[in-house]
Amino acid sequence: MSTFNNVTVTKAANIYYDGKVTSRVVSFADGSTKTLGIMLPGDYEFGTEKAELMEILAGDLTVKLPGSDAWQTIKGGDSFDVPANSKFQLKVSAVVDYCCSYLD
């Protein structure tokens, strides 16, 4: 899905790592949310309470998921799952455009 219809977008951005990672919340009528954002090159760690589906729309990164010592290469068009109540690490090598879906 390349567009979302009938949604509410929160104007204020979520800003992390001195502006190197930003996102905006998109809320749906069913109560679900997603964030759309950009990550500039750098190394990052994020924590999440809910499970997430991270869709990489464009760019390149590697991710180290909880419980793994291996780094996985992710490119535009790929996605990965993050379990609830966990932390994950990212190494962004080229500007990343992403969509994060929060799962119940």
UniProtKB/TrEMBL annotation:
* Recorded name of the encoding gene: ppnP
**Which keywords are on file for this protein?**
Glycosyltransferase, Transferase
Keyword Metal-binding listed? The answer is no
Q: Which reaction equations make up its catalytic activity? A: adenosine + phosphate = alpha-D-ribose 1-phosphate + adenine; cytidine + phosphate = cytosine + alpha-D-ribose 1-phosphate; thymidine + phosphate = 2-deoxy-alpha-D-ribose 1-phosphate + thymine; uridine + phosphate = alpha-D-ribose 1-phosphate + uracil
Indicate whether Protein transport appears among the record's keywords: no
- Name of the top EC class for this enzyme: transferase
The record, for PANTHER family, names: PYRIMIDINE/PURINE NUCLEOSIDE PHOSPHORYLASE, PYRIMIDINE_PURINE NUCLEOSIDE PHOSPHORYLASE
Supply the name of the protein. Pyrimidine/purine nucleoside phosphorylase
What the entry lists under Gene3D superfamilies is as follows: Jelly Rolls
